[in-house]
Amino acid sequence: MMFDRPLLRFVPNGTRINFMRGRFIGLATSAVLSIASLILFFHPGLTLGLDFRGGIVVEARTQGPADFNAIRAALAAQHVAAAGVQSFGGPDDVLIRLDTPPASEPDHEARTQALVDSVRHAITTLPGAQVLRADAVGASVSAELFRNGMLALGLSLLMILAYIWFRFEWEFAVSAVVTLVLDLTKAIGFLVLTHFEFDLVMVAAILTILGYSTNDKVVVYDRVRENLRKYRTMPLAELIDLSINETLSRTLGTSSTVFLAALPLALFGGASLSGFAWVMLFGIVVGTSSSIFIAAPILLLLGEKRLRRDARPPARTS
Amino acid sequence: MMYYSRLRMASVIGICLIGLALCLPNVIRQPVPSLPWRQIHLGLDLRGGSYLLLQVDMNSVAADRLRGLQDETRQTLLKAGLGYRNLTTTARGVTFTPRAPEEAAQDLKALRAMPMNVPGEFSVNQGEGGQITIALSPDAARQRAYDAVTQSIEIVRRRIDATGAIDPEITRQGEDRIIVELPGISDPERVKKLLGTTAKMTFHLVSDSAIGSAVPPPGVEMVPMSDGQGTLPVFTHVDVDGADLTNASAAIDQQSGEWAVNFTFDSTGAQEFGAVTRANVGKRFAIVLDNKVIEAPVIRTAITGGNGQITGSFTAQQATDIALLLRAGALPAPLNVIEQRSIGPSLGADSIRAGGYSLAAGFVLVIAFMALFYGRFGWYANIALLANLVLMTAILSLFEATLTLPGMAGMLLTLGMAVDANILINERIREEVARGRSALQAMQAGFERATSTIVDSNATALLAHVMLFVFGTGPVRGFALTITIGIVTTLFTTLLLSRMLMVRWYARTRPSTLPV
């Protein structure tokens, strides 16, 4: 049968790449990228989406190519000062952004909601134009959504730490979570550079990346644990290298399938999902490489003495 | 490991078939009446519609009760012939100074006999300076707040039903919030207006003596006119409450030809209305709606039939809406819209198309990958993948879950991750074959060793998404839910179904080498 045997393979059996020799290069590269991301996080900073920033976003489709002056005039006629009118997607799609009134004013929530109606009225005065989407998020809600988003991120990291600690030794848990935090900073750097808006959907993307990245590390760790029992005298560096090589085919296989699944979403998923999918794709690459180049070296540093100590055979027996 | 009993095979296949049957309602639109008909709902982001998050103004709930308590205190003391000074409300109650210290015991006795809405609602005590305090208990305040939200939900539901909206979803969120989801209504302006009105109608006597005075006497309040033309001093005491209405409708007034709202009281309301109008013929009676005087006609005769009419130079729409609001009842407190999201139908259709194409394309890519890289066992994984998609759809239908755009992304990613378990097993078998094991030994070792890895890796992913489900809102919860369900179905399809296919193939052909 023609589909009986696999036609392609990632790596041949018995591949032995000495990853641990390059561990300091890997760690240094990661450190540089993460520090750069942190700098980007503080300046210029993340582009906060509507969920977290609050405010008003109205997407409208006009008849024929959008006439920005006409739109601005229509908004002005409704006494709306738009913070931004820009094209979006196709030539006849426009995005109108408004800031919320300052939260210090007593009726800012009511005014935020009333502004949306004014924008709607402005759009309906334009011939053939229709509102595709109108969102208005008040200041109290956006603050709460942000807090919940961060809470979900923080608690997930803690739960992952606790689970790996429970299933493995603490060295595994700590190196996994340190690596995840490094992955996280790089994802944030990616968001700053690409200007994708950071909103709840992005938090979901980042959590998915973290879940995927953990998954990848667990598979390598699982093999390290197995090999620790199997090869009682092998030095840890060699043992980790062996484990990575043994799982390399799987690591590349799984990251390819997830990558392939997310790729169409990035290309044709539409405005609301393509950002999510690009972050996923970035995260798959980062998460896969960090298992090999970051998590494993950290495990080696933390476990060099400890993980081998009790396994080493007594000196006098031979 | 390498043996599947008939019963086990039958149950694995059975579950897949049940899953397939549960998917059917999503494909066949016509419900079969005798069968449980559950299907996936499309989220607002796919279907088009509006999402409103409302906050109940709790300060106003508390302030209302305090004002009522102050009014009751005054009435109680007056009825008992007792005097008071400095009657004011504080943050948690009402205080006053007795007219004379020796009256304090009588004051306490009279006030403690006041009716309570819930047992232990307030306590009456005398402080050190001789002041008497009526303090509301925090428990009762919490209960009142909870009741206010419950009641608001009921009123919101009635008002929205009256607009003719289809399948509205109204749910409580947290302590003081209400979520309103309106599929198909992409412009929520009218609904927002209806919900933004408290529609609290009360009838008060006008204090003619206070007209023109700068500071109203105690028990009298200056209330603005609805047309914006100045204010009118009315007694704070509510003579008749609009809550006692049984019906209201918009109609054209025969005499003036203007739009008016006709209303009918229930028996309590009719009795009260009759008594007040009988005792106050010749005086002005103010109709106050949401703290604005709509009109204040002079009472000509006692009105005993329980019918009345409000005329206030309304437009047809205003009269209709006021009638609708009066019928649905007043909100116990004002509602503020703090978040709204509305999506037009064309955008939703675009999203379904984009999501659907991406899902199909991703599925095909993953299937092609598995076939190219894993051969026969890859095809078994693909069969399991298809079953996975079917089971995910089945469970989502069973829960009558809402499919959102991020939810579609979640399904796609689940499919990408699902083959991981097959890859782990296949790679392991490949390794064991390379070590010189026989076909049987290699398959056995592959299943055995890979299982703990599969469970560990899926458990961590599960944890992350459960967190997201707990703390996320709206469409993001849909994403977390699909991934969580996807992880469960993945464990089933890979650990049971695809393994069964591999084992059956081995039992049938007894190969000496494996296609890895």
Automatic annotation (TrEMBL), chain A:
<feature type="transmembrane region" description="Helical">
    <location>
        <begin position="252"/>
        <end position="271"/>
    </location>
</feature>
<comment type="similarity">
    <text>Belongs to the SecD/SecF family. SecF subfamily.</text>
</comment>
<dbReference type="InterPro" id="IPR022645">
    <property type="entry name" value="SecD/SecF_bac"/>
</dbReference>
<dbReference type="Pfam" id="PF07549">
    <property type="entry name" value="Sec_GG"/>
</dbReference>
<keyword id="KW-1003">Cell membrane</keyword>
<feature type="transmembrane region" description="Helical">
    <location>
        <begin position="145"/>
        <end position="166"/>
    </location>
</feature>
<dbReference type="InterPro" id="IPR055344">
    <property type="entry name" value="SecD_SecF_C_bact"/>
</dbReference>
<feature type="domain" description="Protein export membrane protein SecD/SecF C-terminal">
    <location>
        <begin position="129"/>
        <end position="304"/>
    </location>
</feature>
<keyword id="KW-0653">Protein transport</keyword>
<dbReference type="GO" id="GO:0015450">
    <property type="term" value="F:protein-transporting ATPase activity"/>
</dbReference>
<feature type="transmembrane region" description="Helical">
    <location>
        <begin position="277"/>
        <end position="302"/>
    </location>
</feature>
<dbReference type="InterPro" id="IPR022813">
    <property type="entry name" value="SecD/SecF_arch_bac"/>
</dbReference>
<dbReference type="InterPro" id="IPR005665">
    <property type="entry name" value="SecF_bac"/>
</dbReference>
<dbReference type="GO" id="GO:0006605">
    <property type="term" value="P:protein targeting"/>
</dbReference>
<keyword id="KW-0813">Transport</keyword>
<feature type="transmembrane region" description="Helical">
    <location>
        <begin position="173"/>
        <end position="194"/>
    </location>
</feature>
<dbReference type="GO" id="GO:0043952">
    <property type="term" value="P:protein transport by the Sec complex"/>
</dbReference>
<comment type="subunit">
    <text>Forms a complex with SecD. Part of the essential Sec protein translocation apparatus which comprises SecA, SecYEG and auxiliary proteins SecDF-YajC and YidC.</text>
</comment>
<dbReference type="Pfam" id="PF02355">
    <property type="entry name" value="SecD_SecF_C"/>
</dbReference>
<keyword id="KW-0811">Translocation</keyword>
<keyword id="KW-0472">Membrane</keyword>
<keyword id="KW-1133">Transmembrane helix</keyword>
<dbReference type="GO" id="GO:0005886">
    <property type="term" value="C:plasma membrane"/>
</dbReference>
<feature type="transmembrane region" description="Helical">
    <location>
        <begin position="24"/>
        <end position="43"/>
    </location>
</feature>
<dbReference type="InterPro" id="IPR048634">
    <property type="entry name" value="SecD_SecF_C"/>
</dbReference>
<protein>
    <recommendedName>
        <fullName>Protein-export membrane protein SecF</fullName>
    </recommendedName>
</protein>
<dbReference type="GO" id="GO:0065002">
    <property type="term" value="P:intracellular protein transmembrane transport"/>
</dbReference>
<comment type="function">
    <text>Part of the Sec protein translocase complex. Interacts with the SecYEG preprotein conducting channel. SecDF uses the proton motive force (PMF) to complete protein translocation after the ATP-dependent function of SecA.</text>
</comment>
<feature type="transmembrane region" description="Helical">
    <location>
        <begin position="200"/>
        <end position="220"/>
    </location>
</feature>
<dbReference type="InterPro" id="IPR022646">
    <property type="entry name" value="SecD/SecF_CS"/>
</dbReference>
<keyword id="KW-0812">Transmembrane</keyword>
